[in-house]
Fold:
Amino acid sequence: MTRAPQKRRLETRARLLEVAAAIVQEQGYSGLRVEDVVARAGVAKGTLFSHFKDKDGLLAVLIGDEVMRLLDGMEARGAPQDAAELTARLAPHLDYVGQDRVIFDLLLRYSGTTAAEPDEVVTAGFIRQVTLLTRWLQVLQTAGQIRQDQPPELLAEGIQAFLNHVLGVWFCMEHDDETPPGRALAPYLQAWLQPAG
Amino acid sequence: MTRAPQKRRLETRARLLEVAAAIVQEQGYSGLRVEDVVARAGVAKGTLFSHFKDKDGLLAVLIGDEVMRLLDGMEARGAPQDAAELTARLAPHLDYVGQDRVIFDLLLRYSGTTAAEPDEVVTAGFIRQVTLLTRWLQVLQTAGQIRQDQPPELLAEGIQAFLNHVLGVWFCMEHDDETPPGRALAPYLQAWLQPAG
DNA sequence: AATCAAAAATGACCACGGTCAATTACAAAA
DNA sequence: TTTTGTAATTGACCGTGGTCATTTTTGATT
Structure:
């Protein structure tokens, strides 16, 4: 049985996250240096790694929080009426992840955790995303808006696959104009969700 | 106009690749250290980085070669007769990439390069993969085996998306049994290629 | 208050990828 | 052969993530 953490430890953890979030705000995710975080937080480097498994563990909390916020926004707008509207609902997610390769890489590293231990924020975020999508798809299915020959869970995971695909392509070109990830997603989802014969 | 490289340079490059391949053979991709490569090749570290942009650049050649070999195998077996057979054709690719996260990460980093400069082996591999898939899908379409309402290019890229999705999930669980990537792919492709209404 | 075991924090140290001004080897021109 | 410009290579050095034996802090117990 593990003891409850002391107050000092919680404060330190909070300070680390606070400082890290500030640095991300100023320099972006890719500008985050562990040394900068500990320096501004006034702790030793080892302390950070006793709070988070590694740099990714820290990032996972920051990014997981943001993903949760995005999901709040998605849920607030209610279920979409058709496939096109669903696609539009995903735009904020694409915008967020598309802003920095670091986010994409990290999410991908956790992306299959839909079933495992939900102790991490990111994992919880994924579960929530797939759950929400599944619910929406179920609604669209009963409304006859999309194909009904596949379980909504499969359709939901397929959507995640296309999200990552579009983002992967996005990060490969140097962002010189080119179709933004939002536009690129539409044809895939259209073909994926279209009623089957 | 850049001069042709001298013989010595070509030899050095060949030696680096040879040594790197040997180390991968012995320790796997994730066991590859730049220092080991240069030590065994008998050159200085800087030399390696004058031949390859970074460690990924070296890996890209090794992995690109292997991908090309896999594609040779795929092409040799000819076009599949139906969707299920197509899925089976992809198994070697899944097995290869699924063996080490390093391969997956690297391929993903280059995965969107379907259109850009094909100077890299990996990029060429991707183009070749999508081309081959497109050709096969076209055949299946005219044979009436799969949906005909979408261009074969889109279907091909969708398949790539599902390949990566399945692999991403695969790397998230600790490989303790669980459905191997090969099995996991089938339901997605079935749903993706099924004739539409 | 004094004692003590567990929790928390420390910072010197390491591993590894990557850089670049300086050096050496080469091949063409004089 | 000697000179000379450039291709090729060198290795000391750096940035950054991560480790761990040691030290400090904390709060319960006597």
In short: Chain B has two domains: 1-51, 63-193. The domain at 63-193 of chain B is CATH 1.10.357.10 (Tetracycline Repressor; domain 2). The CA atoms of residues 16 and 41 of chain B lie 6 Å apart.
